[in-house]
Amino acid sequence: MSATTTVRRIRSPLFYSLQRLGVEALCLALGFVLVVWSLTPIYNMWKIALDSHAGIFGGSIWPEAPTLESFRVVVTQDFWYLERFWHQFGNSFIVGLSVTGLTLAIGSLASFTVGRMRLRNGWMLTNAALMTYVIPASFLAIPIYRIMQIYGLGNHLSSLILTLTTFATPYAIFIFSQYGKSIPMELDESARIDGANPLQIYIRIYLPLMAPALVAVGTYALLLAWNEYLYNFLLLSTPQSMTVAVALAQFLNSDESPWNYMMATAIIYAVPPIILYYGFRRYMAAGLTMGGVKG
Amino acid sequence: MSVTQQTLAVGRGLAAPRTWRKAWFGGLHGADYVWAIAFALPYAAIFLAFVVYPIAFGLWMGSDLALYEQLFTDPRYLTTVLNTLLYVVIGVNVKMFLAFLLSGFFIRKGWWIKGLMVIFILPWATPALPAYMSIHWFLNGQWGMLNNILYALFEFDGPTYLNEHWTGLASNIGAYIWKTLPFWTVILLAGRMAVPTELYEAAAVDGATGLRRFAHVTLPLMANLYLVCTLLDMVFALGDFNSTYFVSGGGPAMSTEVLATLGIRYAFTLALPRLGVAAVMSALPVLIPLVIILMRRLRPSEGQL
Q: What are B279-288's pLDDT values in tens digits?
């Protein structure tokens, strides 16, 4: 645009429609770049999984003779790294669901007592949670590993469940406290006049009204537990106790591993969290704006 | 979606009115007090058992000064510190800048922008482990898809990215950006959408459009959120284990390790757990100020949650 003219020219409608077209074309180009950027590694995963063992080393960009053989191998546990695949899949589910349940219970109780009952010195609890949140979990890995040995929980799913619950709860406390502010205090007060004790208020008033926040945090905790790798790997190492994440990473132990089996396992492992994420994106987006809008 | 709430609350929450309502008829008495303590107990217990105790244990394990002497004379450690700095500073800042720009793109209206968002978010929705494994094989010098593409298009033999120090480090950083860019874009997008439209209308009445509107309305309102996101992601990047471990594997010859992976490597590959703790603890001079700033910034204005 020529901004130097002193008198503002009245431009023809054609100029504006051309300008809009230009902007739209630029946006489309950027969109194309973003699609390629986002999907290339995902495509690479599928390409390898669908390839035959020889095809991987063929130097082609798409699978030349696509086959579902690798998926069959994974599903029927037909490879020695995958002998206990479904059992390990079940372990991942147990860990995920336990972490979700514990996080919701512990987080909501803590935020109820701090936010609603206003426990004196409750801020200490809040600060503890905040501190846990901003300390990198991987930095505590070595001491936690040793401590689990001391507690006698080595290779036991509960060691992983407790650790991951510890790292998921701070976020839960934060979200619950934020969301809890939107529930009127008068509800608690009137229930108290009717003679309800704190536990009844928590179960009958607090939890039902917190449902959207519970869904958002539950999704978060489940994804965190399913996707986590470092603690899975450190705390669980026997084929009986390990989760899918550890089983998947086993493929990296040797250079001659069949990549196509590995990628097929990776895809099967990635599908549940992706479905969960897209399924509950609406709730998580609601949690996203909640804080911003309400302040 | 972990940080959204905090960061947004920080971005706009400072103006929130203080409410000092006394809860529950002026405090807790008798049985109520017991209930309150009982409700607080589970979190206090796991915090003590799995945060305080490990920290104390770690401090004890890394308390021997001779360990640090050993550490600082290890050339691999010095490379690691440099890598970590580059990883955190470049990885985080490039990504946050891109996320900021992209949030301006995704705020546009249109059906295909919405559809694009669904695709764009996929790297974030994918678990880290499969994503980084795929990137690892994608960049493989001999059989990787990237070099296959380069060869097919330009008849050019690409380098072996993961067998050199600098390209290996760049691959790790790039993978981390790929994975987390959508998340921060969504956060900053939510921040942009929380800017009241009246402000833009008022600016339009005053004749501010385009760049001026950006510089005088969008930027000041987003600055705080942007800063907090950057600091928070620095902590996340500092503790990121997966991208280095799975993309370059720390190789070649441990030249692309970062502190988070080096500690684990010392402890579990080389069986030197105390040295591993010492390596992690050497990040404390950077980590502690970050943690303090973040705790202040993230704490809601009321002083209580």
A: 999 998 889 9
B277 interaction partners in chain A (CB closer than 8 Å): 142-143
Nearest by CB to B12, from A47, A273, A292: name it.
A292
- Residue A290 is nearest to which of B5, B40, B112, comparing CB atoms? B5
ipTM above 0.90, yes or no: no
Residues B123 and B204 in one domain: yes
CATH superfamily of A75-294: MetI-like (1.10.3720.10)
A76 touches chain B (CB under 8 A): no
d(CA B272, CA A235): 18
Q: Any idea what the CATH number is for the domain that residue B79 is in?
A: 1.10.3720.10
Closest-approach residue (CA) in chain A for B118: A278
Say if residue B36 is in the same domain as residue B133.
Answer: no
Bigger pLDDT: B210 vs A204: A204
Encode pLDDT of B72-95 as tens digits: 998 899 999 999 999 999 999 999
Predicted pLDDT at A64: 79
Q: Which is nearest to B286 in space by CA: B25, B23, B92?
A: B92
B23 occurs within a structural domain: no
For residue B291, what is the nearest residue in chain A, using CA coordinates? A134
B96: pLDDT strictly greater than 90: yes
Residue where the block lists tokens 């790292």 = A167
Q: For every residue of A25-75, which 3-state class applies, written as one string?
A: HHHHHHHHHHHHHHHHHHHHHHHHHHCCCCHHHHCCCCCCCCCCHHHHHHH
How deeply is B285 buried, as exposed, middle or buried, from its count of CB atoms within 10 A (0-12, 13-18, 19+)? Answer: exposed
The tokens describing A145, both together, are 């590993």
